[in-house]
Design a protein that fits this description.
By secondary structure, the chain is mostly helical. The chain has two domains: 64 residues, lambda repressor-like DNA-binding domains (434 Repressor (Amino-terminal Domain), Orthogonal Bundle), CATH 1.10.260; 233 residues, Fic-like fold. It is 60% helix and 3% strand. The strands form two sheets. A two-stranded antiparallel sheet has the order 1-2. A two-stranded antiparallel sheet has the order 3-4. Helix 12 packs antiparallel against helix 13 and helix 14 crosses helix 15. It is elongated and about 75 Å long.
């Protein structure tokens, strides 16, 4: 963390006060003014004098800012997102994550169609008509990923999880069903294949307990994130969209803890589903599937970082 006086200079600009006027009124040296401009530490007496002159509180003129590590994948994704860079790792991740995650849940859109929607914001169809929900959820997934990048460094909470679901399912046919509860927990029991999930009356308590136990970890590892994912999918807190929300959470948490994230390829979905089903007895199935997916993403990253 480092000190920042950007808020001070914003106030000066708003009140049409020059740096020279500030220096002369509170009687500080040009060297001290230079320190303020460079966001360097100054004596508390200087801060007190500035606050008295501007009639404000210390928090109005200064704050602690987290130093940005420009070598992380998160920084690169956020940077490319901000400028909407075409053809970069952000672009490729958007398309591949949306296509594979949606296709695993029954979307009929191809990867090329998904890419076309992302790149042109229009629908490109060959012969077969497309389901409108598949299209809406593809666009929504792009927005979910942007949200994940925005909150990647935040502590995972119920609100973040619900927000991802709300974005994913907004304006779908499901969202028109009052009981479907978009952006909130399920109201009707559901199953995954032939496996029972947590009843609606117990979902909130179990999600809160899962988050509490996860947040107690001093350090979070790749295996911890996978274990969280298993328990999240076992609870199955939403009426639909649990898999996609869960995989977006994985990506977010990997970015938060500077762990290489991954995209489960839809061609390997049977291994992924087996891993979830057998996790209690054999954790290796799911972990190995995710490690394999991580290797594939590492290969993609190496292409974009090669000089």
């Amino acid at each position: 963390m480092k000190i920042s006086y950007n808020k001070l200079f914003d106030i000066l600009e708003q009140r049409n006060i020059t740096k020279t006027e500030l220096r002369e009124n509170i009687k500080i040296s040009t060297a001290t003014l230079a320190k303020l401009s460079k966001n360097e530490l100054v004596a508390m007496k200087v801060i007190e004098d500035i606050c008295n002159f501007l009639n404000c509180q210390p928090g109005d003129i200064m704050e602690m800012e987290k130093e940005i590590d420009k070598t992380t994948l998160l920084y690169r994704l956020q940077e490319e997102k901000q400028i909407r860079l075409k053809g970069g790792i952000y672009h490729q991740t958007q398309v591949k994550l949306a296509y594979n995650s949606n296709h695993m849940e029954g979307s009929k859109l191809t990867e090329d169609q998904t890419r076309y929607i992302y790149e042109t914001n229009t629908i490109g169809l060959d012969k077969e008509p497309a389901n409108i929900d598949d299209i809406i959820e593809t666009v929504n997934h792009f927005q979910c990923f942007d949200y994940v990048l925005d909150c990647a460094e935040d502590v995972l909470t119920e609100n973040i999880i619900k927000k991802i679901h709300q974005i994913l399912k907004s304006n779908t046919s499901d969202s028109r069903l009052e009981w479907f509860n978009v952006g909130d927990y399920k109201q009707r029991s559901n199953m995954v294949g032939d496996s029972k999930t947590t009843p609606p009356s117990r979902v909130k308590k179990e999600v809160q307990q899962l988050l509490f136990e996860y947040q107690q970890k001093e350090t979070v590892t790749f295996e911890d994130i996978i274990e969280f994912h298993y328990h999240f999918e076992k609870i199955h807190p939403f009426q639909d969209g649990n898999g996609r929300v869960g995989r977006l959470i994985i990506f977010k948490e990997c970015l938060k803890y500077n762990i290489t994230p991954f995209i489960v390829d839809e061609r390997h979905k049977l291994y992924y589903y087996r891993g979830l089903k057998e996790f209690e007895n054999e954790r290796g199935y799911l972990i190995d599937t995710c490690l394999s997916a991580q290797d594939m993403y590492i290969e993609l990253l190496e292409y974009f970082t090669e000089e």
